[in-house]
Design goal:
Elements lengths: L21 H6 L8 H23 L8 H12 L3 H9 L3 H16 L3 H14 L5 H8 L3 H22 L2 H11 L26 H6 L14 H23 L10
Length: 256
């Protein structure tokens, strides 16, 4: 933040610290060729395009409904969805990740499983959470797709390492340690994202409802029980996801 005051653009002093894996910086390094205002426009309109493409890839329209009206209704619906709005105002990667995840399942449904696995590897290096899809591949015993994902991860790590080395990844391990709930990345710079009222992380709403923190007032202060409740909530959702992977329905897509 101290260095941000030295740059020309006044908005730079309000930017959030970088918390993504090193590969994300390599992937979007080409943006440094543009000015700050140009990058804002590229990111804003790029997010809209990626959201539109994601809807086209993963949303099925009702039978008999024309495609364009259905897309218009879909876009109008997600426009009021805060987790889609917030990444635009904060310059986050959610739309890019939504596109990658939509592409993963689109490729999977069309029989391109190894290619889908490679995209899972790419998404995992952009942000850690898509790596849970590797567990899904093991659960489905799709070893070809799993190996494609691992190969993509290795290539995308060691390729840039030829020039930049592996030290950025070793430094990133310290950032990962700060991602546990009740702590915050870049806390040494005064950041406390886990208590931010605009935090859209999955356990954040439950945690804010039931514990006191510097920026929100809880509905009921349960102290440490709020943390335990967040863990239970996450485990229940994980178990439900695993059950859905194993239960077969009459209308289930056989490719999934």
């Amino acid at each position: 933040h101290a260095e941000a005051f030295k740059v020309r653009h006044p908005e730079m002093v309000r930017l959030n610290p970088y918390v993504y894996p090193p590969f994300t910086g390599y992937l979007f390094g080409w943006l440094t060729l543009f000015s700050y205002d140009q990058v804002k426009m590229i990111w804003f309109w790029g997010s809209q395009v990626l959201l539109f493409l994601s809807l086209m890839l993963c949303w099925s329209k009702p039978v008999g409904c024309p495609l364009l009206p259905w897309l218009a209704v879909s876009l109008g619906t997600v426009a009021f969805f805060f987790p889609h709005f917030r990444p635009i105002t904060a310059g986050q990667l959610n739309h890019f990740l939504l596109f990658l995840i939509s592409l993963i399942f689109f490729l999977w449904r069309h029989g391109c499983r190894k290619t889908s696995g490679a995209v899972i590897g790419l998404a995992t290096l952009v942000k850690v959470q898509p790596g849970f899809l590797l567990v899904w591949l093991c659960w489905k015993r799709e070893w070809g797709a799993f190996l494609s994902a691992i190969l993509a991860i290795l290539l995308l790590i060691f390729g840039p390492a030829v020039r930049y080395g592996l030290y950025p990844y070793f430094d990133y391990l310290g950032v990962l340690k700060d991602m546990g709930y009740g702590s915050s990345t870049w806390s040494d710079q005064g950041a406390a994202f886990y208590v931010d009222p605009e935090n859209i992380g999955f356990p954040a709403p439950l945690y804010r409802l039931f514990t006191t923190n510097p920026r929100t007032t809880p509905w009921m202060d349960l102290g440490g029980l709020a943390y335990c409740g967040s863990m239970v909530w996450a485990l229940v959702v994980l178990i439900l996801c695993l059950v859905c992977c194993r239960v077969r329905r009459r209308d289930e897509d056989p490719e999934m």
